UniProtKB/TrEMBL annotation:
The chain crosses the membrane at residues 28-45, 51-70, 77-95, 101-123, 130-151, 179-198, 228-245, 265-290, 311-330. The lineage of its organism: Bacteria, Bacillati, Bacillota, Bacilli, Bacillales. It is a multi-pass membrane protein. This is Branched-chain amino acid ABC transporter permease. Its main location: membrane. It comes from the Bacteria. One of its GO terms (cellular component) is plasma membrane.
Amino acid sequence: MKNPFVMGCGEFHVNYKEDMAIWKISRVRIRVFIMLALLAIFPLLASDYVVGLATLCGIAAIGAIGLNILTGFTGQISIGVGAFLGVGGYTSAILTAKLGLSFWIAMPTAGIITAIVGGLFGLPSLRLKGLYLAIATLAAQVIILFVISRWDSLTGGTAGMVLSRPEIGGFIFHSETSYYYLIFIVLIITTLFTLNLFRSRVGRAFIAVRDRDIAAEVIGIDLFKYKVLAFIVSSFFVGVAGALLGHYTMVVSPELYSISVSIEYLAIILVGGLGSVFGSIYGAVFITLLPVILRSGVELLSGLFPDISNVLVGMKEVVFGLVIILFLIYEPEGLAKIWKNIKDYFRLWPFSY
């Protein structure tokens, strides 16, 4: 029987299950459920335009989580994520538009095909690291886009392909709200899988490879196996994101998966926070909405000063690059670390000393 005169202090875990929980504190779990509930009712209160932006943020977050598994958690640099998005998008387009398969079969198949392609281009990772590995993944970007652009009979070449929105039981995900909920569910599944992945033996091996690959090999971790596996798992989620993006925009075309897309996804995980699942989501929201905010600022200032509108349009890319540089200089761990600092401050406030 618990002694009523003994006052507990802090959080105590009495078994392994409690100690290994994703959210160990009950109030944190409640906060997560409240956030999920707010996100669930969000499209009922917002306009279609805002819901569409949220959908794009969710798709970018799924792809960014996949890239962060490879780059942030395993330490393998990749500049070919744009091409892997294209593999996912084109695979789903071919399966649905040409073979007549259901989207619910095409989407996971797109992830599997992208995972196989990513694993093949990940084979050099045992011998290459750093800048050399980045160049190898850049070669993947060039090769994949070349195949997509030239294989006219399969991919439609530079003209691209037209897709349709997914449907289930006669219900078509045509509205912005319905597609938002689809992305919302896939993002939750992706997040939970990734959080649990890095509580497993495989996830811990990924982190060990990132921190010190030679030491990891000494303690028995198969570097080749886990480096290639990181490419496979990462590419799977990137391929799923590519399929979801293709069916959302209802078109796939080679120019949609250029090197600039790969750089944008790298910016997402850098700004959000390398090695952070939720940082990938923060970065996806930030980078996706930044051009929208800059465009609104340009339109506002153009209304006040019409003569400088041309200058301001050219400044959007400058501001975008400047934001990334400032994050790298002043907060290399990204938005995830900024949010952690805020929480730590209020956890001790007002007795911060």
